User: Which sequence fits this backbone?
């Protein structure tokens, strides 16, 4: 039995010549977990919105959407409001009330449910998602991951038949994202709720979904089981960067056997191919850095208020000039706080910070921000003050920026209407216009699609060539492993270890890349897909 | 265990309204003193942090209010002494003292009120008056801290762009206005998402029914009736006693008026009585564990 039957659906926004959805037909079975991926503007969000009658935007629609065998437009509004659940990207703005219990009850209040029924449902929902310990909390006291989980719990308290999720994990760190998707899968398997999720972080979702749909310019590019779909995306496809690392390795290493979806399958795949010999990667070159220090932090202590606990407890960190330095660590380990100390936004109560050899206190009258430091915060929209991209870049005359932003195409767009990746580049342009020597990035890959990530990688490499020093805080180990020279691990306000990326990631058990976990004991020292492919080619040559 | 704080918010709200109204609108020193006694006892029971400061502030306020009236008022026939050729009368002093007592008492009641009526409770009361108003209040409680955080985030980001110059007050304000302007754009943008999220969860589909975690119990009705009767008794005593300060302090006194005072004493002490009884019951119950 199909829950959704979509027949020849087309949709175009007013004043737009291009169709956002172009003649799509597919069905979603009851209890199915469908994942939709695609570049920004491929029509994922539009499609999801068309399936939720309350969110249908103005525009021309052709074709049919059958929900439980009936036309969606003639379905009862009271029914679809509760039975089709919708979760969007930004948890902060989706939450309406100030307390956890009230948010859980919101949809039920709207439906005019009785006190007893509401009490039962919100209690059940809170215990299913293990939100009972924060049931009485204020929303402002919750972490981002808890907030997004709360929006999911709130929607499922209404006991929906199907859940539509539009990139729900894009503003979450990988651990919270994993937890969110795991809870979603539980809803799917334990309660049989159908799930349609738009997502571009395929690493996590690929093992959970029954079918994968790849959308391209409003059309269905691919729709099949995850393994088949991933096998069909070739090396030269624009979607190649969407693949999880094990699948990319499989493609690059000659596509024999079945495509591995997970690290576990990847290990089996490797050990089948290289049973006897252990491939040795070239030993890691000791990085004897003779460059001057760009940043030096020594025994830095910081707390927000006199009576609050220390956020940074004796943090020491050195970053050399002209290197890309990544900082990993769990949430609340003081990563972002350390960055705001480097930017001079906050001041430590003890300890020394030197930027390019000069104590940070001696940078007077904004001289820190003039040709010295550029800071890209986590939420880049905080940098935008104007109504269009062109105005935003008016005072930025750097010619090099032209390569980052296509002013012709995007000049008149409001910065808020850009995609995550484009916003990131625009923000970078604004920051680079100050000619900084040290660029500080906070979670630069959060919420941007894989192609934008590739783009950002290229930009960072180019900046390094021009002599820039880059420090970034990130949860995205895969990204960092490909661009950075050295990295550090923060824990509880201290820097517990630091070193070259190869060294750190081939030692690390959890804070490391999928490839490193996959190749451990089989290919020594491989961290990125490129490393593994190189080792493969060497082995092939040795065989000949 | 049911302390007065655990009664239904509407019951608690009504109780406070009754006590505070009698305290503020009656000009009778007995009622004012009784009210003050009840308020101070309850206030001490609630163990509000920095209570000593509150007490000191109240004492100062009491002294100032007591002294101001006789300095400016020339009414009253019993002259105590002259200050700069102006008579200071006993009646004016009494009047000032009574006003000060009732104001300080009301202040203590309000302090207790703000401690007891948390946002959840206040919203429960408001939702009975207007559902929309209650929702707007909930949403503001949610968005005020959110906007505050975002304002600081934007401000920090703009600082690192070198937007703000040190020391120049005009530039400083210009920069802050820009930050606020950006915050408004951000808030409007977010407002669309909020509206959609509300709509997606069926905000427009029909009659909203506000969920409340507070249960109405028989003891709530008992407390309602008790509060109303005792407050009515206090009003009776106030009217019948017809306390007059000028030209001379006069009052009437008989048994029903005395009963009214006793009733108001019970009303003022009700939180203390209920909570002490609960503490004792708790001690008794735990002694059996």
Assistant:
């Amino acid at each position: 039995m199909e829950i959704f039957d979509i027949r020849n659906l087309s949709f175009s926004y007013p004043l737009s010549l291009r169709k956002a959805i172009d003649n799509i037909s597919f069905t979603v079975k009851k209890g199915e977990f469908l994942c939709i991926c695609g570049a920004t503007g491929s029509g994922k969000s539009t499609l999801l919105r068309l399936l939720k009658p309350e969110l249908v935007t103005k525009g021309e629609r052709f074709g049919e959407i059958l929900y439980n065998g009936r036309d969606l437009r003639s379905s009862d509004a009271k029914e679809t409001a509760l039975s089709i659940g919708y979760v969007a990207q930004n948890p902060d703005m989706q939450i309406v009330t100030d307390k956890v219990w009230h948010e859980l009850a919101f949809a039920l209040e709207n439906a005019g449910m009785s006190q007893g029924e509401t009490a039962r449902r919100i209690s059940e929902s809170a215990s299913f998602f293990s939100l009972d310990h924060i049931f009485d909390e204020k929303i402002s006291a919750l972490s981002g991951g808890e907030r997004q989980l709360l929006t999911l719990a709130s929607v499922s308290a209404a006991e929906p038949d199907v859940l539509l999720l539009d990139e729900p994990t894009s503003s979450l760190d990988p651990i919270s994202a994993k937890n969110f998707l795991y809870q979603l899968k539980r809803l799917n398997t334990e309660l049989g709720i159908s799930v349609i999720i738009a997502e571009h972080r395929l690493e996590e979702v690929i093992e959970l979904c029954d079918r994968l749909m790849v959308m391209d310019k409003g059309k269905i590019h691919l729709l099949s089981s995850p393994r088949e779909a991933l096998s069909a995306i070739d090396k030269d496809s624009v979607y190649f960067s969407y693949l999880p690392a094990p699948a990319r390795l499989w493609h690059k290493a000659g596509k024999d056997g079945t495509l591995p979806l997970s690290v576990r399958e990847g290990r089996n795949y490797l050990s089948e191919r290289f049973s006897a010999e252990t491939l040795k990667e070239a030993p890691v070159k000791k990085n004897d850095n003779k460059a001057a220090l760009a940043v030096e932090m020594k025994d830095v202590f910081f707390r927000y208020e006199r009576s609050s606990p220390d956020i940074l407890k004796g943090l020491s960190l050195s970053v050399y000039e002209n290197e890309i330095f990544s900082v990993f660590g769990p949430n609340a380990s003081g990563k972002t706080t350390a960055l705001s100390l480097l930017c001079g936004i906050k001041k430590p109560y003890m300890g020394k910070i030197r930027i390019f050899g000069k104590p940070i206190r001696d940078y007077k009258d904004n001289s820190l921000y003039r040709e010295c430091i550029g800071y890209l915060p986590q939420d880049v929209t905080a940098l935008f003050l104007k109504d269009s991209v062109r105005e935003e870049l008016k005072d930025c005359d750097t010619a090099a920026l032209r390569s980052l932003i296509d002013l012709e195409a995007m000049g008149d767009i409001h910065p808020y209407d850009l995609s995550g990746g484009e916003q990131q580049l625009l923000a970078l342009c604004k920051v680079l216009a100050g000619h900084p020597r040290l660029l500080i990035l906070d979670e630069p890959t959060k919420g941007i699609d894989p192609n934008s990530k590739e783009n950002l990688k290229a930009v960072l490499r180019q900046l390094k060539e021009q002599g820039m020093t880059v420090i970034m805080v990130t949860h995205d180990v895969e990204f960092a492993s490909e661009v950075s020279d050295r990295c550090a691990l923060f824990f509880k306000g201290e820097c517990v270890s630091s070193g070259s990326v190869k060294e750190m990631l081939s030692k690390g058990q959890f804070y490391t890349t999928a490839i490193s976990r996959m190749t451990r004991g089989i290919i020594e020292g491989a961290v990125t897909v490129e490393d593994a492919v190189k080792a493969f080619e060497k082995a092939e040559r040795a065989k000949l | 265990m049911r302390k007065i704080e655990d009664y239904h918010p509407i019951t608690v709200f009504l109780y406070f309204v009754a006590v505070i109204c009698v305290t503020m609108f009656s000009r009778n020193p007995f009622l004012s003193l009784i009210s003050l006694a009840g308020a101070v006892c309850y206030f001490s029971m609630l163990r509000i942090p920095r209570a000593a400061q509150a007490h000191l502030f109240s004492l100062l306020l009491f002294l100032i209010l007591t002294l101001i009236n006789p300095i400016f008022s020339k009414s009253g026939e019993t002259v105590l002494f002259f200050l700069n050729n102006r008579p200071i009368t006993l009646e004016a002093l009494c009047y000032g003292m009574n006003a000060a007592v009732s104001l300080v008492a009301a202040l203590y009641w309000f302090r207790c009120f703000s401690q007891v009526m948390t946002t959840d409770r206040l919203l429960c009361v408001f939702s009975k008056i207007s559902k929309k108003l209650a929702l707007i209040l909930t949403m503001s409680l949610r968005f005020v801290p959110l906007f505050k955080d975002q304002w600081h985030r934007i401000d920090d980001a703009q600082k690192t762009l070198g937007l703000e110059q040190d020391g120049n007050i005009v530039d400083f304000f210009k920069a802050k206005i820009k930050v606020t302007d950006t915050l408004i754009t951000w808030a409007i943008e977010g407002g669309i998402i909020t509206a959609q999220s509300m709509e997606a969860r069926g905000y427009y589909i029909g009659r909203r029914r506000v969920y409340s975690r507070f249960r109405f119990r028989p003891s709530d009705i008992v407390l309602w009736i008790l509060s109303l009767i005792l407050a009515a008794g206090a009003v009776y005593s106030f009217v019948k006693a017809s306390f007059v300060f000028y030209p001379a302090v006069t009052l009437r006194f008989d048994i029903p008026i005395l009963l009214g005072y006793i009733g108001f004493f019970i009303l003022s002490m009700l939180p203390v009585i209920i909570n002490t009884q609960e503490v004792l019951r708790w001690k008794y119950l735990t002694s059996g564990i």
Observations:
- The radius of gyration of chain A is 25 Å.
- Chain A touches chain B through 64 residues (CB under 8 Å).
- The mean pLDDT of chain A is 88.
